[in-house]
Each structure stands twice: as C-alpha cells, then as structure tokens.
Amino acid sequence: MSSVTRPSALPAVLEDIAAQLDGTTGIVKIPFNLYILLDPEEQIAAARCASLNLGQSVKYYLDSTNLNRVYLANLASIQIYRPCEAWVVPGYSMPVLFPGMSRLVEQPNQSPRVDIQQPSPSQSFEAPQFQPSTSRIRRKRVTRTPDAFTAFSAHQYQFMKQKNPEMTKTDICAIIKAKWAKMDEEERKPYSELAESQQTD
C-alpha cells in the first residue's frame, strides 16, 4: 500500500511573501486554504522568512471579518492599517483579529466575559466556524481630539470622492497623505486653526 504525499504549499506561501513584502507594506496576507496546507515546520519556515525580510518578529493572525484570510505580520504593523485587537479564542490555533474593538471593560466582582487561553502547539486546525458571542461586550469609547491633519483629510476626502467616485478609500487616503507631507507650515495653518476651533467647541 503506497502512501500519498501531498505537494508542499510552502513554495506558494514563500512566493506570496516575496511578492507582498516589496517595501511598501509590512503585512503578508495568505489565503486560509493555503495556510492549512502548511505543516507546523513549514509554518515556522514561512514566518522566519517574513521575519528576516521585515527585520522584526511576525505571527499568524486570523481575520475575523474575512475567515478566508490569514495575516502574517507584526500586530503593530496591522494596526497601522486598521484598528484592531488580537484575541486568543478557544478552538483556534492562532490569535483572531477583531476590528475596532477596545479593551473589555469588566464590571467589579464579575468574571470575565470572554474565555481567553493560550492555544496548545499540538492543536489541529480545521476550517473555522465563527459564531458571534451572545454575551454583550462593553467597549470603552476612545475619543480623539481633532488635529490639523484630520481636518485636512476630512475636507480633501469629500472633494476627491466627488471628483473621482471610482477611486477606493485606500487610494484617496494615500493621495491625501502625500499632499499633506508636501505642504509647508503656512499651507497647514488654516487646518490647524480649524482643528483648534473644533477642540474648544
């Protein structure tokens, strides 16, 4: 009886890493169906390759908004592009990213609302069946004071979206950032004043 050997998914993942780490981002997105084909040694090898390319340690994270995507990155790099938190969820072999969540605020004398534990290295990983929690999570609201860049980007975003409705939000934000970087203090001054007036209101 001959054993069937499956082809290694590592070369495809290494190609993804090389293609995505072109100096413009510190994040690698791997399709979940490709990730599950990696054995533990291949997962470590892929993470080591990404770490060497980035010059920082990386981990695997499952995206809760798209369960077909696994991030291979440093959490701080992911948070630059989207505010999120990583939670260890029972039944998952890697931390799960939840976008826009603040830290849980627990009431005194109550047990935590989420069972958080470290995954075991020998835990097998099957296709996730994500079910939203039935318990209510209290979120601490973070309010930010507007700054000059926020005032500038709000103004520019509406203007650019009207002129170019086919542009994506990512493209528009990149253009706004580039414009802001080229502006001198005199050009930024009206937006600083607008931000200050909004803070006093």
UniProtKB/TrEMBL annotation:
HMG box domain ranges (all copies): 142-201
InterPro entries in alphabetical order: HMG_box_dom (IPR009071), HMG_box_dom_sf (IPR036910)
Keyword Transferase: no
Biased composition (Polar residues): 108-135
Pfam families according to UniProt: HMG_box
Gene3D superfamilies listed in its UniProt record: High mobility group box domain (1.10.30.10)
GO cellular component, one term: nucleus
Keywords, sorted A to Z: DNA-binding, Nucleus
Region span, Disordered: 108-142
Known DNA-binding region: 142-201
Molecular function GO terms recorded: DNA binding
Protein known as: HMG box domain-containing protein
Biological source species: Xylaria flabelliformis
